[in-house]
Amino acid sequence: MKAVAQRVSRAAVQVDGVTIGEIGAGFVLLVGVEHADTDAEAEALADKLLGLRVFGDAEGNMNRSLRDVGGAVLVVSQFTLLAALRRGRRPSFTAAAPPEMAEPLVDAVVARIGSAGVEVATGRFGARMEVELVNDGPVTVLFDIVDGRVR
């Protein structure tokens, strides 16, 4: 599983011109699911994100987590994170899991974050989405999760 978390002051996702999810301060989390991924990778991603200390404390140092600041998460499935660019100019997405496997694992990430008491909004799996966000910092963190562990 690969993911990108961007710290934001606000974010929203629209499908067909209708806002289906929005948050204030927190993270936009783009999630790409690979063929070998399981619930272990979904749990590891959610847990690492929840504890990630990239929010400022009273001195402005990145010492606070999402839970510490009462932040929210906007989760968007993003199979293009798994693009292979080794040959030619058109990316290959063969590393991406099929939708019937990927959607439940993205849902598992959402459920794990929500069960921690954090507000979670989502995009719509498989839809063409427009994601608007205001980067805060900017702070962007890449996740590569293999065998239930973040690498």
Word description of this protein:
The chain has 151 residues and is of the alpha+beta class. It has one domain: D-tyrosyl-trna(Tyr) Deacylase, Chain: A (3-Layer(bba) Sandwich). Helices cover 23% and strands 40% of the residues. The chain is built from 3 helices and 9 strands; from the N terminus they run E-E-E-H-E-E-H-E-H-E-E-E. The strands form 2 sheets. Strands 1, 2, 3, 6, 7, 8 and 9 form a 7-stranded mixed sheet that branches. The chain has a two-stranded antiparallel sheet with strand order 4-5. Strand 6 (72-77), helix 3 (99-115) and strand 7 (120-122) form a beta-alpha-beta unit. Helix 1 runs parallel beside helix 3. The termini are close together.
Order of helices and strands: EEEHEEHEHEEE
Count, helices? 3
Mean pLDDT: 96
CATH class type: Alpha Beta
Q: And the CATH topology?
A: D-tyrosyl-trna(Tyr) Deacylase, Chain: A
* The CATH fourth-level homologous superfamily: D-tyrosyl-tRNA(Tyr) deacylase
What's the shape? globular
As for the number of domains, it is 1
Strand content: 35-45%
CATH architecture: 3-Layer(bba) Sandwich
Return the structural class: alpha+beta
The low-pLDDT segments are none
Report the radius of gyration as a whole number of Å.
15 Å
Task: Find the count of extended strands (DSSP E, 2+ residues).
Answer: 9
* Biggest β-sheet description: 7 strands, mixed
> What level of helicity do the residues show?
10-25%
Roughly how many Å apart are the termini? 10 Å
